[in-house]
Amino acid sequence: MGKFKLRTEAVLGLAVACIWGLTFLSIKVAVVELKPMTLALSRFVIASVLLPLIALIRKTSLSVKARDLPLLIASGFIGVTLYFFFENNGIMRLSASESSIIIGTIPVLTLLVDMIFYRMRAGKSVVLGILISFGGVAVMVAKSETAGSSSGGYLFMIGAAVSWVSYTFLTKPLGLKYPLLSVTFWQIFFGMLGCIPFAMLEGQGFVRVSTPVLLNVVFLGVLASAVGYWLWVMVLDKLGASRSSVFINLIPVVSVAASFIVLGERLAPAQLVGGAATVIGVYLATKSA
Question: Which of 58, 78, 235, 244 has the fewest beta carbons closer than 10 A?
């Protein structure tokens, strides 16, 4: 039974990695017509409507206790509002491939939090992996064609990675108290509310968008937000923050491959080396964690 559960969680983790790997392409397409936080608000309005329907079908209660609302609000604001403020703005300035590789360092950042705040002991392979991954990112950034004119894009993506690590640790205790679907709904709901003032400041309002952009918004709202977040919380609850973060290693692989096929994006040779080093470093750091 234990092996079956592990396989199930691995399948869910792989599904999340594939879905979220493709989101970089969807966001890249959508921000051509929609401003970053208007896009975020649109996708999470869809998710906020869809998740209660999923809960009704699964006969899952969405009720939570008032004393846990501050943590739900904080985790929703950090993991949804702040994360997508940083990510959408970053992807708008960088290629989908570059953005996904930066996000791929999240497992390493998670390990650093474990080491610093939870005094986790790190072996040589962990330390080596951390150094290699950060070195790979440094090479990729240095050789980027956009490093001079759009260097802020990298800062946005680093902000997204830090936000996600914080969200992961804030979510863990909530998963012990409530159904996973309930946690996901309230985080997305509060995160969606947090997107409203940002979207208002953008001043875009209601606009007519092309069919490809509309389809990408629906994909982001239904699969990437509602289904993806729900599956991720399930994996997080069973495997823990560090082990579940390993699946994020595959996000840049999916994104780079899909960006090449669909968008025709091509990283410079030095960037490919740096990106490969980043993924290898993350694997070394997390395989024995």
Answer: 58
